[in-house]
Amino acid sequence: MHDERDEQLxxxxxxxxxxxxxxxxxxxxxxxxxLAAIEERRNNQALWSFWxxxxxxxFTLMAIIVGVVSVASxxxxxxxxxxxxxxxxxxxxx
Length: 94
Known about the structure:
Blueprint (H helix, E strand, L loop, with lengths): L1 H17 L5 H4 L2 H14 L3 H27 L7 H5 L9
């Protein structure tokens, strides 16, 4: 009895392996659908995120310019850059 079930199950597995599924309907227009989905994801990105990375170099340059101007325009500061970067508590050591 057990052997008959195994044989029947084996025949069923063999029949399923012999079937080739029809994937023509799924394949039709796959590239078009894929490219449309990619384009939709690109268009759904927030504009501020897109422009933020484009403007980072400009903001960095502005920060550097403001820093240089603030150091150059303060006559009370020393001309030594190390004293500018050193913490104020260690001024007495030097």
